[in-house]
Amino acid sequence: HLGSSSQVQFRAFPAVSQALCQTWLPETPWLVSSSETPAMPGKAATETYTHGVRTQHDSHIPPERALQKLKEGNARFVSGKVTSSFDFKPEHRTALAVHGQNPMAAILGCADSRCPIETLFDVQAGDIFVLRNAGNTLSHAEGSVVGSLEYCVGPLKAKLIVVLGHTKCGAMMGATQTMLSAQKPAKDGAPAKQSALEKLLSGLGPVAQQAQHELGSGASADEIAAHVVKVNVFAGMERLLIYSEPIREKVRSGEVQLHGAVYDITTGKVEFLGQHPRLPLILGMQAGLINTDKSLEAIAESAAQGA
Q: Exposed, middle or buried by CB within 10 Å (0-12, 13-18, 19+), for 246?
């Protein structure tokens, strides 16, 4: 619970994970440290990389510094003083291809075309490892998302993961409308087969229900959909920690930090929400009790039937 300043509350959301098989460059023992000049107030830090962009020849950035760089980049984006697009040169593409990637952070964001993640954080190619789907969701423990994040904080050694939602999210509105429709009396006849999109929206039902509960009776669909954006971010953080033992252990040890954020598509500003307020409790959960072969909806149905 965030306290009186927020209506967001939290519950455990169990479900599915599969490993992502990828090939990566082996860890190189001959890493060359990059140098960084501390930032002056209101200015971005000046960094010097071995090849002009972040590659495996540069040192890894601790989570606190990676988060600060994202904040600085978003501040430049909001003020219209972006720099990364002007600094990227053809030789930087060659450096990334030859010397490998070394992202400072992984970001799970929404596929909405109004949310260009590299742009809104004013970063270059090679700076961040980006995953996107409708609603930045982990409602069914999407193996490609979980496995990719494990790859980023494992072999690539990124120290920060950010789950990024955004205002006016169509997936959150769709989930809200689906949830509200499900509360109405069912029509006669066999239920129609769900499309992949309908399954995705149904999978977001628990967060939509939580948002509705927190706002209380009388909340409109628009109000619920706006509130569920933040609820969904925290739910995604919680699910990721439950689904992924490697990530959970790295967060527990302090090697990796997991943060939430919400991008305002009107102002361009990112609201950084911090780490999950129930982090110690989530890290202490017995994830082995979770059936990772079932979606949230299937688990709830099984529990109701005594399965």
A: middle
Give the separation between CA 200 and CA 145, rounded to whole angstroms. Answer: 14
* Residues 233 and 165 sit within 8 Å (Cβ to Cβ): yes
Among 232, 245, 57, residue whose Cα is nearest residue 153: 245
Confirm if 272 and 165 have CB atoms less than 8 A apart. Answer: no
Of 233, 280, 61, the C-alpha closest to 160 is: 61
| 6's tokens | 């927020």
Query: 264: which residues sit within 8 A by CB, 6+ positions away?
Result: 166, 167, 270, 271
Number of helices (H), then strands (E), in the chain: 12, 7
Alpha carbons 226 and 209: distance in angstroms, whole number: 13
Tell me the pLDDT of the chain (307 aa) as tens digits: 333 334 444 444 433 333 332 333 333 222 233 444 344 334 445 578 999 999 999 999 999 999 999 999 999 999 999 887 777 889 999 999 999 999 999 999 999 999 999 999 999 999 999 999 999 988 766 678 999 999 999 999 999 999 999 999 999 998 888 888 888 876 666 666 778 888 888 888 888 888 998 998 889 999 999 999 999 999 999 999 999 999 999 999 999 999 999 999 999 999 999 999 999 999 987 554 454 444 444 434 443 444 3
How far is Cα 180 from Cα 202, in angstroms, rounded to an integer?
11
For 46, other C-beta atoms within 10 Å of its C-beta total: 11
H/E element, 164? strand 160-166
Would you give the DSSP letter of residue 156? Answer: T
Rounded Cα distance between 201 and 196, Å, is: 9
Stated pTM of the model: 0.78
How far apart CA 160 and CA 127 sit, in angstroms, is 12
